[in-house]
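Z., the sequence and structure:
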Amino acid sequence: MKLCVFDFDSTLMDGETIDFLAASLGLEEKVSSITEKAMQGELDFFESLTTRVGLLKGLEEKKVKEICHSLPYMPGAKETISELKKRGYKVVVFSGGFRTATSYAKDILGYDADFSNVLHVKENKLTGLVGGDMMFDFSKGDMMQRLQSLLGVSKKDTIAVGDGANDRSMFVHADLKVAFCAKEILKKEANAIIDVKDMRKLIEFL
């Protein structure tokens, strides 16, 4: 068995889920500047995530679902996942974003499983709290090791694809480390770089 793990926001999806959510409250600029700093590695991921989600307090759950279910996917994402699966890969998503988006996209893009975070809801509105699988800078690397152990997959048979600072921890455990339209901090640790928004380019590195 082989394993390919993708980041979701700005990798399989063209944009950042939290920025789309913030835009509906007129807070896109404020939230996206924090997102950008976190992806550049200038802010602690946990602190930046909890700060940004706090700003979404009061957003209706119905609106969250509406936005998360109409996100623009990256060109070539579906075809690339299909090709990976034909070649014997288990395809998994690790996202510092939200399950409302990643679980919905799973059936559309065709990956096998998703690990992400959950926005806390009370009385049909966001409370500004968040919890889940991908809360910290180290979370992706930690989950990668557990998944490799569970599936019996070696580092040699593992691919990691991402764009931001919080993807560095999973790069450590993959032989093919793909920086996709990525921040410089991640490119430095990659051994494959794709600078065009076309996920089909990944197939050239297999």
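The first strand starts at residue 2 and ends at 6. The chain has a mean pLDDT of 97.

Let me know what you think.
H.
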